[in-house]
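Re: export button greyed out
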Amino acid sequence: QVQLQESGPGLVKPSETLSLSCTVSGGSINNYYWSWIRQPPGRGLEWIGYIYYTGSTNYNPSLKSRVTMSVDTSKNHFSLKLNSVTAADTAVYYCARVYYETSGSDAFDVWGQGTMITVSS
Amino acid sequence: QSVLTQPPSVSAAPGQKVTISCSGSSSNIGKNYVSWYQQLPGTAPKLLIYENNKRPSGIPDRFSGSKSGTSATLGITGLQTGDEADYYCGTWESSLSAGMVFGRGTKLTVV
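Workaround output, generated via the alternate export path:
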């Protein structure tokens, strides 16, 4: 049973860089796409981007200029960096595994429990 | 502002059936598969339906999905109080602003 666990600082100051990590246990990170999704308090889900185990990425166009994702297959984890954060980036951040069978079939079949990130001075 | 439109809320009595709609366009639902997620209060979303109408292992057949044109529907029969949750639809957006998109979510109340 694959499980995902996010880890992060909890609190980030405005204009600084948010850094999160997601550890994959119970399975391999290889041969899958992995994703970050966030949810502001009381609001809906927002897709941040994908990373393939090879390192190739695809980001939400609205966040692309501030997002960097990376993967470390030796440690079975992947990471998110979001720079120049503002209060609007306050949210629960989830990592998720991507189900992908064919073009346009994307779905998120395994989720981490989420980690709350607050942007405040 | 979401590109997928869901009703903010639906309600039904225990044992009854409810449907939740998700309306999009030719560049998202019209071209790609739809997935549905259940988010119980204080928990992470859970995949209920993928590729329009397929259920992951462990999801009961009370949950069903369908798609027609640029709209999709999630159906839940035999409603239980434990089904009270937020439900989200998602799909790939194939326009210039390509990426995964979600509806704003529908709050299901079982009364």
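The CA atoms of residues 13 and 111 of chain B lie 5 Å apart. The button fix ships in the next patch.
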